[in-house]
Amino acid sequence: MSSKVIQAMYNDDDILMDAVKEVRAAHYHIEEVYTPFPVHGLDKAMGLKGTRIAITAFMYGCVGFSFAVWMMNYMMIEQWPQDIGGKPSFSFFLNMPAFVPIMFELSVFFAAHLMVITFYMRSRLWPFKEAENPDPRTTDDMFVMEVAVDGNESDLVSFLEKTGTVEIKVTEKH
Amino acid sequence: MYTFSSKLKTFSFALMILGLIGVAYGFLSTPSSVEDVKVMLQNSHDSHGEVAANHDVDTHVVEADAHGAEQTESAHSDDTHAEHAFHYLKNKPWSALYVALFFFFMISLGALAFYAIQHAAQAGWSVVLFRVMEGITAYLPVGAILLFVFFVLSSLHMNHLFVWMDPEVVAHDELIQNKAGYLNVPFFLIRAAIYMAGWVWYRQHSRKLTLAQDNATDISNYTKLFKRSAAFLVFFLVTESMMSWDWIMSLDPHWYSTLFGWYVFASMIVSAITTIALVSIYLKGKGYLEFVNNSHLHDLAKFMFGFSIFWTYLWFSQFMLIWYADIPEEVTYFVSRFNEYKIPFLGMLVLNFVFPLLVLMNSDFKRVNWFIVCTGIVILIGHYIDIYVMVMPATVGDQWFIGISEISSVLLVLGIFIYVVFTALSKAPLLAKGNPFIKESEQFHY
User: Fold this and answer.
1) ipTM score here?
2) Which of A27, B243, B250, B371 is deepest in the core (most CB within 10 A)?
3) What pTM, to 2 d.p., does this model score?
4) Does B323 touch chain A (CB under 8 A)?
């Protein structure tokens, strides 16, 4: 099996969407699509699965909440239950309203930051990471669809030429 | 066009009749004198144990002989206790009716505010739901009349809900005397009339304009409605705040809270959006709203979720600030609620916050009708309890009980509400087709 990919370039997101649907209907495999901005509905057209990042965020929030409850209970109730301004430090629930702002903030803090870090890790983003776009124009006004070559290369090229592409490049897979 | 099904009509009449019987029973079963209450209290003591009964008999004997300061003291406190309980029990059916009347009035007022916000914000998604909202706000004039009659009856001393209306109480209460410039009966009724007139006027006017827009060739009605809605929102914000002082906060004339108006508003708007969602789902289930898709319901469910959290935020802000500073004159409000109303006071947090938080967090669940219906019913019950806990501690104190009076008051007003709302829905086409955003709204998807 060759490791060649065809990069079909488009200059309009509507044409790109139609092309993605045609290529999928013809059962070619789309490796990747590069766009300068989010194209609404592209993930659905490509048949990508929904993200689960919201679920991770919920779990991180639960972790943050539990951490806050444990921390406040340990410090204010168990470790050194002082009388501070008459606040009832006999049990966690008697003094709970005073802890709620911290419980809330830590839930949000954990949920937000850990979700962002999860996003960076899953999408492999970090400082000094080498950029992966195949053509610098994809960050400006070009849309690139990469289709894996599997079988007859010239058939695929002529098929893609009919989908409204402005340029076609055949390259080795990086 | 929607036709009011005879089944639903019969159901609403059944609710009204059942409610009316229950309310009448509630009024007839109040004790007629302090002596009755004493007998009742004694009976309940008897059922608790014979020791208490013996104690009562002893103190009565001693009281007759006028011997021993200590015993007469306790007998005297028995008397005042019975008198308090008597006033509370007399108030109970009135308060139950008041909570139900206010609750449904608040739903329709909240729907009106939401409707005005949609117009002023030029929202594109909600246009297909405008007729549903207009149907719900049709209860507003009816509810306003009922509430106003209730206030007039209160000011005629038919009941004892607003203690500042009682000249004898005011005569012995310097705190209320100092507020008499605001809290006096004529001014109270004039204010209520002004609020209600303003709200009902906007409601009738906006209805007239949207109906005129349906067959209009230009959008002059629409632009007029846009401006009126923006003006109404300004008026609403001021009057809603004052309404909450007048109608709810003045039940506890010794207590005040600055964010109370917002708190009542949060309760109002979340109940209203829930009701809009429930009515929409009902009508869609009957096949009358084929242009409403599950993205519209998703948006309503998001509003239910968001405003539930907003309500909790205000509830907690009010509670925590007072709990934290613990100033005696403010904290009594929550002390009485914590001591005598623990289950409804804390239970409504579960119904109004924890349940919607966990159920409506998931995006997929917000598109499933029966999830919205279940959460909606829980939210409405929760906000009924919210109003209940705002009103009852001031009027019936420790004599509260969710019994025949309370349930049948809700049934009575619910019956009127259903009858009025669905009659109004059958009066006009369910699609406001003249609105310039109607195409966007029909194709709305999330």
Assistant:
1) 0.89
2) B243
3) 0.90
4) yes
